[in-house]
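I am still getting used to backbone structure tokens and would like to learn alongside you. To get us started, please write out a protein record for me. Once you have written the record down, we can walk along the chain together.
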Amino acid sequence: MNDPSLMEKIVSLAKRRGFVFPGSEIYGGLAGTYDYGPMGVLLNNNIKNYWWKKFVEERDDVYAVDASILMHPRVWEASGHTNGFSDPLVEDKVTHKRYRADHLLENVGVNVHDLSIADMGGKMHELRLKSPDGNELTEPKVFNLLVEAGIGAVEGQKESVFLRGEITQGVHVNFKNVLDSMHPKLPFGIAQIGKAFRNEIVPGNFLFRVREFEQMELQYYIKPDPTGGKQQYEYWKQFSMDWYKGLGIRPENLRFRQHEEHERAHYAQDAWDIEFNSPMGWKEAWGIHHRGDWDLRRHQEYSGISLQYLDPDTNERFTPSIIETSGGVGRAFLFALLDAYREDSLGGETRVYLALSPKIAPVKAMVSPLLKNKPELVAKAREVRSLLRKVHPTIAWDDNGNIGKRYRRQDEIGTPFCITVDFDTLGEKSGLKDTVTLRQRDTGAQERFTVSEIIERIRLAIQ
């Protein structure tokens, strides 16, 4: 994307039109937190519902769980998060701003992947690296990304737990429960949507890197067979890409990127990202990882409970391998907005609109009487809206200002259709009775249709 101001435009529009607000804004805000407004809640839910439809509802081999945010501390020991889920932190000695040492080094061309914390410190000294404000930096130190909490009623006697840093482990610790209650046959998946928390050193780029976020994730369990595993992995890679394109994002703004060997976790047999062409460059939107049997094997070791699968056909016991397809709701939300943002000169003036897919647009259509002081027009428009709400509940009503201003407001929130009831609808022109004007968001084109024709058009568009 060539517009360096695009992110700033999206942040402004998101607040102005009720998509996203800064967290705790009246108290000065809290870095890395955001609140979703009325339009944002609708868009967010539409994205999640579309994921749920494709990954769960339309399949017979996927089961759902909703695991607790608070989990036993041993879960995070088994997963490796307690010791390994950390970043190298440095601090500006004057401003006390915090930075990731690896990012500062990468910005000057240093390959940090094989460097220890001590090595990073030595390299920073060697390069005489300063903070972005030109000040001296502290020595790098380990910064754990898990957010710690205390549970219990008595102060000083609280048990230390963590807010989950990912939703993955909530699925794996319930693998046996799903086996025992649902009796699925391999291959099968367990899906979940849920909140996760990370103590990010430097949150930023709006919704891209935040401290509280929501994930959509499928853990798919397969036999530990290299050939079959490769086939399943390629299937879920393409399935995930097709889903992302299904959000309405232009294909040229999406690509696959395979992790280099030094990027992959030690247990990962393969790892690919779906990346989005953002104003910050190509950024991770989604991850597809072949995790081997790492998670189940570790939880079996740390819990002492067998997490093996008994094949009913061969009577063989084994620990399944896992293919993970996972992404953030907030990132899908952000990338959908960035991709959909448009400016044109429709009608001789600059117009801003969001070319969102009708499937995920927060409002599916707006109904409006041409004049709000004509009771007969208002009554007919409300009748039309009631009929459309049987197709989908988010059909807006707007009778404020002239019709052009109403269209502009709907354009900025991505409403694909605007429907106007005028005097011709009431039968003042022969042949036009019971027809209304349908305006298309992207082109501004207007045509007359019967209400039944418009109902069918909207129904097909949002499927």
About this structure: The chain is about 35% helix and 25% strand. The mean pLDDT is 91. The domain at 6-71+169-338 is CATH 3.30.930.10 (BirA Bifunctional Protein; domain 2).
